[in-house]
Amino acid sequence: MGLEIKTLSLIDIELDSSFLVLGRNMGVRLRVPTHGYLILGGDAPILIDTGASSPEIMHRLGMEGWISEEQKLEKQLGKYDLGLEDVRWILHTHLHIDHAGQDDRFPSSTTVVINRRELEYSVSGLMGEQYPAEYVKHLVDRLHTPGALRLLDLELSGPEEIAPGVVCEVAGGHTEGSMNVLVETAEGTACICGDVLYDIQNQVVEPWHQILDHEPQTTGNHGNTKREEKAAIKKALKHSFVLPMHDPPARLEGGRVVARLSESVPGPETPVVHRFASEAALSEPIVA
Predict the structure, then answer these.
(1) Strand partners for 90
(2) Disulfide engineering: 178 pairs with which of 86, 174, 205, 263, CB 3.0-4.6 Å?
(3) Is residue 146 reached through a cis peptide bond, with omega within 30 degrees of 0 on the bond before it?
(4) Nearest Cα to 252, choosing from 264, 263, 265?
(5) Sign of torsion, CA 167 96 31 224?
(6) CA dihedral angle for residue 207, residue 249, residue 179, residue 21, rounded to 10 degrees
(7) In sequence order, what are the residues at sequence separation of 6 or more whose Cβ sits closer than 8 angstroms to the Cβ of residue 79?
(8) Pseudo-torsion of CA 82, 83, 87, 92, nearest 10°?
């Protein structure tokens, strides 16, 4: 199976740095991208996440949002000669404010796929306005429209194949219902990991305030325990590629980040030097 993944730029968001990486540069505002991903090469196009409904909705979380003309969903899909009606499946890593905002623009013939626990979690109130009412109410409408919604029970059933070479598995981090999407490419399995990772450089390559070997740093935005978050990151790093929603993709070898990619996976790469803590310690001079 040789599927290809295209990066879609859907909205830029300004937020506190410590939201991205726990404890890092608190009070410093950063502007970050928000991706969707388009899976091509199979029987029909598959879209991973749909961005925010509008830039203004980010004000509910004290954030700023920007959607340029080029970032509009029609423009992003149009680069691949697709319209909204051409997308067969929408797979949601989770349902947060910047990930599930444009589902209502797709016809009911486009099936939205989410983990059932994520839909339950979205109405729990535990993460407040990160789950806007209008997003959740639209999904309830799909719940009662034949064929418009598919619910997975990944914690109980194990991984589920949606289409040949495309499998959903429980992520184990960020939210209680988050899922990873595993895609078989010509160069290995790619893990679209939602928001388990926000910042590969400062969570994995040079993990902020971590001195243990192979120990990632968590994000500052999650609903699970720190141990669950760390395990979820390690799980995502087991594949050939990892694709976060707010950072460029990376290629991996044995859990080590060896390159970064941009618009396509597989695609052109920029090499990365990633030394684990034990390797860095061995290379440092011994002080008497």
Answers:
(1) 47, 112
(2) 174
(3) no
(4) 265
(5) negative
(6) 30
(7) 6
(8) 110
For residue range 33-55, what is the model confidence (pLDDT) as tens digits?
999 999 999 999 999 999 999 99
> pTM for the whole thing?
0.96
d(CA 234, CA 136): 30
Query: Residue 161: how many CB atoms within 10 A of its CB?
Result: 10
* Token couple for 260: 């970064």
State both tokens at 286. Answer: 């011994």
Q: Residue 134: helix, strand or coil by DSSP?
A: helix
Beta strands in 100-187 (DSSP E): 111-115, 149-152, 160-163, 166-170, 179-185
DSSP-based three-state secondary structure for 46: strand
d(CA 215, CA 209): 10
Report residue 282 as tokens: 């061995």
- Dump pLDDT digits (tens) for 196-235: 999 999 999 999 999 999 999 999 999 999 999 999 999 9
For Cα atoms 125, 131, 132, give the angle at the middle one, nearest 5 degrees: 110
3-state secondary structure of 76: helix
**Residue type at 235?**
K
